[in-house]
Design brief:
The protein is about 35% helix and about 20% strand. It is of the alpha+beta class. It has one domain. It is globular.
Length: about 120
């Protein structure tokens, strides 16, 4: 029996450990926001072609839009709910997450975010 009591999230937010072939295959077409290792060739090309402020801006806009549509908030640094969290703050919340359970099309997937 799934622990999920509401509709599954429309977008997943995770730290850089999410970015692996196995994890991306498990997510399928599910949208995600994560830091991608800068050692990846595609990431390097993208970083060189865009102004630095766009990276945070795009992710933050999507995050805030998703929260607004879901009529949800996220805790700020003081633990108080905010409708306008920074992407940096949300990613900080996931720094110690090592295992994520995801339900996609009625199937439960575990995504290991660390190599240990």
């Amino acid at each position: 029996m799934p622990l999920w009591k509401a509709a599954p999230p429309e977008v997943y937010v995770a730290d850089a450990a999410l970015y692996s072939q196995e994890n991306l295959e498990a997510l399928g077409k599910t949208p995600w926001i994560s830091r991608v290792p800068a050692t990846i060739a595609e990431a390097q090309q993208l970083m060189q072609s865009l102004p630095p402020e766009m990276f945070t801006s795009i992710g933050q806009r999507q995050l805030r839009s998703s929260l607004a549509q879901a009529i949800e908030t996220s805790p700020n640094q003081r633990g108080k709910p905010t409708e306008r969290p920074t992407l940096r703050r949300v990613l900080q919340c996931f720094q110690s997450v090592h295992l994520v359970w995801v339900w996609v099309s009625g199937r439960k997937w575990s995504i290991k975010l660390t190599d240990t």
